[in-house]
Amino acid sequence: GYAISFQPRGATTRATAPAKTDSVLAFNNPNLTVSVHMAAQSAAVTEVGTGTVGILDSTPAVIASATWDNTTNLITFHITGGSADQTVGVTADSTFQRLLFNVSPTGTATWTFNNGAPLVQRPGFPAGLLKVELSSTFGAGTAWPSFFFDLVNVTSP
């Protein structure tokens, strides 16, 4: 497979525009799993940037997300209308981490990290078509982290 990476090029001192890509296909839920391996590479937490795996509804609004913030070394997991956001500590050392979003056949949405227990959940997640968005946003400075996405897999029996 091919990895997708987002990183600014050239020297600048102003904020740069976000980079993103959305899936062309929409996927029906419930009974859906989205798995993405994500890594970051950074020399310091002063390199301002975030990488995000977003789940979009048909409008297309982001209704679930996992966001890696290089300045805090945390990934924040969120589901709109779900339980409180949860964070997991990570290191930007190019090691891929597995982020898994699942909507069960009964309509419960969950985020898990590296095959662990569910971190955030929402029962009664709205049924409908979903898309996957991979993105990065970079702040002001002269050096930024790089975000890598690989093994993007969507399954829906």
Low-confidence stretches: 1-15
Give helix % range: under 10%
Strand content: over 45%
Please count the beta strands (DSSP E, at least 2 residues each).
Answer: 13
Q: Over all CA atoms, what is the radius of gyration?
A: 15 Å
Number of separate helices: 0
| Content-based structural category | mainly beta
Q: Could you describe the largest sheet, including whether it forms a barrel? A: 7 strands, antiparallel
Average pLDDT figure = 86
- Secondary-structure element order, as H and E? EEEEEEEEEEEEE
Question: N- to C-terminal separation?
Answer: 22 Å
- Global geometry: globular
Describe this structure in words.
This protein is mainly β. The chain is built from no helices and 13 strands. It has strands spanning 4-6, 19-22, 27-29, 32-41, 49-56, 62-69, 74-79, 86-89, 97-103, 109-113, 120-122, 128-138, 146-155. The strands form 2 sheets. Strands 2, 3, 5, 6, 7, 8 and 12 form a 7-stranded antiparallel β-sheet that branches. A 6-stranded antiparallel β-sheet has the order 1-13-4-9-10-11, with no helix packed on it. It is globular and about 45 Å long. It starts with a strand and ends with a strand. Residues 1-15 have low confidence and may be disordered.
At a glance:
With about 160 residues, the protein is mainly beta.
Features:
157 residues, disordered N terminus, six-stranded antiparallel sheet, globular, single chain, mainly beta, seven-stranded antiparallel sheet
Spell out the blueprint of helices and strands.
Blueprint lengths: L3 E3 L12 E4 L4 E3 L2 E10 L7 E8 L5 E8 L4 E6 L6 E4 L7 E7 L5 E5 L6 E3 L5 E11 L7 E10 L2
Antiparallel strand pairs: 1-13, 2-12, 3-12, 4-9, 4-13, 5-6, 5-12, 6-7, 7-8, 9-10, 10-11
